[in-house]
Design brief:
This protein is α/β, with parallel strands linked by helices. It is about 40% helix and about 20% strand. The chain contains 17 helices and 20 strands. The protein starts with a helix and ends in an 8-residue tail after the last strand. The structure holds nicotinamide-adenine-dinucleotide.
């Protein structure tokens, strides 16, 4: 890992190819201690306008030269790869991710950049004969406003930057004020990789996000965050008919059939729900277990929960960090106390740790109805409601009985039955015997209120492109004499 005090020194915004100080600042809190890490620079409205103007002013060749863009992305991947220790240290400090997981996120960011560096936008040929040539190509949307949540800032920044750039766009990126540091550092590291104005970092609060969305020169908003903010962005984008990619919250159900190997599956279900302290959009957030194995599976999961080591994210023995910020800690605490007050029972955890920082014990709650807030709402933290079912049809109905639709999974020894049940789940992704696998080449996104459009894969590139049909009438060929 890198030196903690050095990595946070002199953080700057990247605007129009220059590293500049912020007009304002916000205190970023270390979630593991509750202490202020640093006063991070934030942009003013005037700086936001400068960033958008620079993004608009990018030379036309940027949108036309795919090889140059791929070369830039490859260089960006090399630079991030050479700075894993530094970026992972910042992630660890600002969101409390255990260091090993922070290294993993940095590695995943490199993978997203490399994926787009190596891919090529497709051209669809509709007709190609002696009379006409008709094909559809991908052209850039223009300035992409990228708005990020706090839970995986580097990974989501890399996903949005790489896709927008691969499609020929420029990017004005607003990280969350709760976790702006890694993205600021990313902008500093990539300063010389892209032509001026292609990548700009504009940290700020929700109001700044609204200004970015309303900006008339921004052609597309790529947003990852809550459903409420996604709805507000969609409404605010309507006057300009802005292109939208909305990756929103989830409340994924996992359905566990009676034929599973209980011991093995218990550990994997626990990871599916509690990895990164449960702060993953596509984590298991509701667990439906067949009644015949409920008590045995719960006992196994309780053992795993009690073996979890919470502590200093930099300590190699730590397996789970704190919640990344105080509002999120309070949300989880309130959801659990409301559930316990309504008759639920904590089989494991159910309380915060008595130490500074946002530490909350991994919690399994039983005895809840589908209407209980911990079941019906997205907790986005280390508290999992576990419910039993007798008939699989009832479990499918309960899993689908939600406004969300990001992911879902089925756990069984019978793969074909697993696929059959998975295909009845109304979600953007349905996994069998795994959960939450998100990779650069696999389309990912939500149905219902969990989002609009798909990230990743070829379809992800389409979200950041306009389709242009080129239709050519060919002159008749001169007869061969
Ligand atoms: P949030 O919606 O509160 O904030 C996300 C970002 O949007 C922040 O940068 C914020 O400043 C900005 N913002 C808020 N309101 C805005 C508005 N009206 N206009 C423009 N910008 C606005 O979400 P959060 O608490 O940072 O993140 C947690 C949420 O993100 C969870 O619901 C989680 O499931 C979701 N998430 C989804 C995915 C996915 O891929 N589907 C991935 C990660 C997180």
């Amino acid at each position: 890992m890198a030196n903690k005090s050095i990595v946070l020194r002199d953080l700057r915004l990247l605007i129009d190819g220059a590293l500049v100080p912020g007009a304002e600042s916000v205190a970023v809190i270390n979630p593991a201690t509750g202490e202020t890490l640093v006063d991070a620079p934030m942009v003013s409205r005037a700086q936001l306008d400068q960033a958008v103007a620079a993004a608009l002013d990018v030379p036309r060749i940027w949108g036309r030269d795919e090889a140059l863009r791929r070369q830039s992305l490859s260089q960006a991947a090399d630079i991030v790869s050479a700075h894993v220790a530094e970026l992972a240290t910042i992630l660890c400090l600002e969101i409390g991710l255990p260091y090993k997981l922070a290294e993993m996120e940095t590695g995943a960011a490199v993978a997203f950049l490399r994926y787009r560096a190596s891919g090529k936008a497709s051209i669809d040929t509709i007709a190609d004969d002696e009379k006409q040539r008709i094909y559809v190509r991908r052209i850039p949307v223009g300035v992409t406003g990228a708005i990020l949540p706090w839970n995986a800032p580097l990974l989501i920044a890399a996903e949005k930057l790489s896709t927008a750039v691969a499609a020929g766009n420029s990017v004005v990126m607003k990280p969350s004020p709760l976790a702006p540091l890694t993205v600021l550092r990313l902008g500093m590291l990539l300063r010389d990789v892209f032509p001026s104005g292609v990548f700009n970092t504009v940290p700020g609060g929700d109001q700044l996000g609204k200004a970015l969305v309303a900006h008339p020169k921004v052609g597309m908003i790529s947003f990852t965050g809550s459903i409420a903010a996604g709805q507000s962005i969609m409404a605010a984008s309507s006057p300009g008919l802005k292109r939208l990619s909305l990756e929103l919250g989830g409340n994924d159900a996992a359905i566990v059939l009676p034929d599973v190997d209980i011991r093995k599956v218990a550990r994997r279900l626990f990871t599916g729900a509690f990895f990164r302290t449960g702060q993953i959009c596509a984590a298991i957030k509701r667990l439906y277990v067949h009644e015949s194995i409920m008590s045995e599976l719960l006992a196994e999961m309780k053992t795993v929960a009690e073996g979890t080591v919470l502590g200093d994210p930099f300590d190699p023995a730590t397996t789970m960090g704190p919640l990344a910020n105080r509002p999120q800690f309070e949300r989880v605490e309130n959801l659990v106390s409301a559930s316990l007050a309504a008759g639920g029972k904590a089989v494991a955890g159910g309380h915060a740790l008595d130490r500074p920082g946002n530490f909350y014990a991994p919690t399994l709650v039983v005895g809840l109805s589908d209407k209980a807030p911990l079941v019906a709402e997205e907790q986005f933290g280390p508290a999992l409601p576990v419910l039993s079912f007798a008939k699989v049809e009832d479990a499918i109905e309960a899993a689908n009985g939600t406004v969300y639709g990001l992911g879902g999974s089925v756990w069984t020894s019978d793969v074909e039955q697993g696929i059959d049940i998975a295909s009845q789940l109304r979600s953007g992704t349905a996994w069998v015997n795994q959960h939450g696998i998100v990779l650069p080449h696999i389309p990912f996104g939500g149905v219902n209120l969990s989002g609009l459009g798909r990230a990743n894969g070829a379809v992800g590139l389409d979200s950041y492109s306009e389709l242009q049909t080129i239709s050519v009438s060919l002159p008749p060929k001169a007869p061969v004499s």
